[in-house]
Amino acid sequence: MADSRKASLNTATVRKQWALAQCIEGCARHGFAGIAPWRDMLAEMGVKHAARQIREAGLRVSGLCRGGMFPAGDAVGRAAALEDNRRAVDEAAAIGAECLVLVVGGLPEGSKDLVDARAQVRDGIAATLDYARQVPMPLAIEPLHPMYAADRACVNTLSEANDLCDALGPGLGIALDVYHVWWDPALAGEIARAGAERLLAFHLCDWLVPTRDLLLDRGMMGDGVIDLPLFRHQVEATGFDGLYEVEIFSAENWWTRDPDEVMRVIIERIETFV
Amino acid sequence: MADSRKASLNTATVRKQWALAQCIEGCARHGFAGIAPWRDMLAEMGVKHAARQIREAGLRVSGLCRGGMFPAGDAVGRAAALEDNRRAVDEAAAIGAECLVLVVGGLPEGSKDLVDARAQVRDGIAATLDYARQVPMPLAIEPLHPMYAADRACVNTLSEANDLCDALGPGLGIALDVYHVWWDPALAGEIARAGAERLLAFHLCDWLVPTRDLLLDRGMMGDGVIDLPLFRHQVEATGFDGLYEVEIFSAENWWTRDPDEVMRVIIERIETFV
């Protein structure tokens, strides 16, 4: 149903099979429009080398994964997080990324104070934004599913992400991943509220029933219960014209398959289930 | 910190070790104020027999688990759900339960339509409420964590539960389980909105980091990251004066222990971590 020429590969989807160079080559060969590397794979290949290869392959970079992880138990930890986020901004710029995705972080070790963690996130984004605006590199908050509130991200709804954008101003937007937000009864209204200006990235996968692992059991589009055409239409009704970035952590299924098969299935599923 | 004389045992917490008769006897022996049976355990013991034993043990019944599961793929399935809910209301009345807890159900088999599932839930509660008001038996919607939206309950925030109470009127309230709602940035306001009149039950456990299973890896109070005193204070600030019902599904830890040890730990942890 959707245009598979807008496919972008989040490299986590084949991270057990391919290094970044292979991902770039695979995206070009399978007709993907873009790629979204993870920083560890980017570091392994070398930022300059990767930037050149991506450019020569004619790929867009739908995002760099990831900055964020702002909350920390002390000032040293918070400063280290800010320093790391500045490096992430530079890397995103070096590869021509359309945004730096922020997985904002959860509770610091030993803390049960979500209000404080959320305040640290706001402050961390604000500080990073000061730097990112000069580059310039758009920052994209990715609201994560509430099951990750403790250990990965304490921004858990699109509403909270929109509130942060309201508070912190230009240069800040949102990476919307259906996996994290599909359950939210307020979603349609919050997508409209975000609008095309804020919607910097759109991530696809599916929610499996049953889900056997909180982190590593995401589904391929069509294998789960998310009404993907519904959410795509809501997102595109804002004027969003970005890529369909496919990000699937799947320890027991897609990470065990021939990566060329995974790439072919992604294209087919975008055409039939998105 | 909290008064352990308000402890109530949700029988799921020791369901692998004890039948309902043993749970009743154990609650009395360990100084629990109440019990909250599951319907399968109640059926196994026999409703009349259980009702008498509970009464003779001097226990309150903080709730019966559970009614709900309203959405179905066809009219026959929906009618069967309503019939089962009427039976659940009768059983709750027979054992003197303070409420019938509703786990409302998720997507029908093959459906991806959450809006429709939520409409079915509203209609199912409305129909059950007509019956429950005559008994009378208060119905308590339990908002479940968003990770259960597909297969267990598509009411996933206290805000949605409050909206349903607004829409459907008297006789309907809420069972608030910290496990499902602790992540929600709107929680404090929604607890105040619910108020003592709607807050019919208060369930305790903890969120473990990491959580190894979506269903069966809940933590004992104090072993996780939920700020239990904070939420208890918010709940009790409304005037709520009910029991502390402890409900822990824990396949690899608490279900493998001596149930008398589990009961002792519950009491200790209410005193130190709630």
Short summary:
The structure is a homodimer of 274-residue chains. Chain A is of the alpha/beta class and 274 residues long. Helix content of chain A is 43%, strand content 13%.
SSE topology:
The structure is a homodimer.
Chain A: E1 7-10, H1 20-29, E2 34-36, H2 39-45, H3 47-56, E3 60-61, E4 64-68, H4 75-94, E5 100-103, H5 114-134, E6 139-141, H6 158-168, E7 172-177, H7 178-181, H8 187-198, E8 199-204, H9 228-236, E9 244-246, H10 259-273
Parallel strand pairs in A: 1-2, 1-9, 2-3, 4-5, 5-6, 6-7, 7-8, 8-9
Helix pairs in contact in A: 4-5, 6-8, 8-9
Domain count of chain A: the total is 1
Rg of chain A, nearest Å: 17 Å
Strand tally of chain A is 9
Q: What is the first-to-last residue Cα distance of chain A?
A: 6 Å
Give the CATH level 1 class of chain A. Alpha Beta
Beta-strand level of the residues of chain A, as a percent range?
5-15%
